[in-house]
Design brief:
By secondary structure, the protein is of the alpha+beta class. It contains twelve helices and 19 strands. The two termini are about 45 Å apart.
Length: about 425
């Protein structure tokens, strides 16, 4: 809606285009919730970017700026902390907004109500994003290696996506509804009720396109375990139970909300499980290195027997690959890597050499491992261990690093 010719007066009812990341301090990022219980109880849900009710706080003087005060009474943080509500003897919080981000709300109703609805009545944004984000006590810290847009679960990443991809295309014709999850129980609650919570009655569904985006890491490790806690500076923030996360993703898709990040549930499950590596090993033109999925039950019975069977399987697979390509088999398999599914840490990728080395790698990945000079168990529910041999035509490793070290450094996530 164009407001270029509008001159606002103090007391005018308006809507302003609110952005949680730009309008709040780091520890006070407020989202506007439909009901106070949506901000008090987990999982917390509210609009973090979009048009929200406000009132002009002073006559407009500059043509490009309008001073407003927020009129919606229910602003909450990811922790359930509440912004000062109207009244109670406190002065209302005012801010300057660019004029294009302010639009008239229309005439007040017969009761003189200061606001009618959280979203502008009759509006239909081009896009509504349901952003499922980390809401745990350990906040996400994105290492510098992720670059200027941050890690794929960080607030910076979502903000960068909106600023670089959404705003240039849609301007202010979009909304972001944030859903904060803290642990497996939040995911299960949402998976069971998403068709009720985000049914056609929810304001997000009035948009021309409503999509789901999941900024979380699926992991096979138990929540709050030592291996998760020791991951990164943020102690494994955004790592959630993989079964519950995929259940939620599928529930959203079943309710007619397509997944647009990172991938549709079935494809994302294939990627994060790493199952594609052994499933595609017999597709000749893909040239996937010989890879097998070692059943967990064999490893638990005997790491030694599993290692012998693993190497024998890799050798048979390599011969089969050569037959499919019409090529003679090249070289003997004497080394490789073993890795966990649903893992985001290079620690879960182990270089091995010979049967004894593979036996040790399988033991480390299933029994216990040394982390920070202490031994800890491996509380994950991976059904198999991915065992992989080097590619025949592998790229040269960086100087001073073994093939295994180089492979581990490039294997974070996939």
């Amino acid at each position: 809606m164009s407001t270029a010719d509008t001159k606002y007066k103090k007391g005018d009812e308006v809507y302003v285009f609110y952005s949680m990341n730009k309008r709040c301090q780091r520890h006070r990022k407020y989202m506007a919730v439909l009901d106070p219980r949506h901000g008090s109880f987990r999982p917390r849900v509210g609009i973090s970017e979009g048009w929200v009710p406000a009132r002009v706080a002073a006559d407009q003087e500059a043509p490009d700026k309008v001073r407003i005060e927020y009129r919606w009474p229910y602003f909450y943080t990811m922790r359930g902390q509440m912004a000062d509500p109207p009244g109670f003897g406190r002065e209302p919080w005012t801010e300057l907004y660019p004029a294009p981000h302010v639009m008239p709300a229309g005439d007040p109703d017969e009761r003189g109500a200061p606001f009618r609805a959280l979203v502008p009545p009759g509006s239909q944004p081009e896009l509504a994003v349901l952003a499922f984000r980390w809401g745990g006590m350990n906040e996400i810290i994105a290492p510098e290696q992720w670059g200027e847009t941050g890690s794929s679960v960080s607030d910076l990443f979502l903000e960068s996506f909106v600023d670089m991809a959404v705003v240039p295309q849609l301007g202010t014709d979009y909304e972001v509804w944030t859903v904060y999850v803290e642990d497996q129980t939040d995911l299960v609650k949402l998976a069971d009720t998403v068709h009720l919570v985000f049914g056609q009655h929810h304001p997000a569904r009035r948009a021309k396109r409503t999509v789901g985006m999941f900024f979380l890491y699926p992991t096979g490790f138990e929540e709050n375990c030592v291996p998760n806690y020791e991951t990164g500076e943020d102690h494994g923030a955004a790592m959630v139970d993989r079964k519950s996360l995929f259940r939620l993703m599928k529930a959203c898709e079943k309710a007619g909300i397509p997944t647009r990040f990172p991938h549709p549930s079935n494809f994302y499950q294939q990627l994060t499980s790493k199952d594609w590596t052994h499933l595609m090993s017999v597709v000749p033109h893909l040239r996937v290195p010989p890879t097998v999925a070692m059943p967990r039950m064999l490893v638990e019975r005997s790491c030694r027997d599993a290692a012998e069977k693993g190497i024998a399987s890799l050798r048979a697979l390599k011969r089969h690959q050569a037959e499919l390509r019409g090529e003679p088999p090249e070289g003997e398999i004497t080394k490789g890597v073993a890795k966990l599914s649903y893992s985001w840490e290079a620690l879960d990728v182990k270089f091995w050499e010979g049967p004894r080395g593979l036996e040790e790698a399988l033991h480390n990945l299933t029994q216990f491992i040394e982390i920070s000079q202490e031994f800890t168990g491996q509380p994950h529910d991976c059904e198999n261990i991915i065992v992989q041999a080097p590619a025949v035509h592998q790229r040269r490793s960086r100087p001073g690093r073994s093939w295994g070290q180089d492979r581990c450094a490039r294997s974070r996530g996939l």
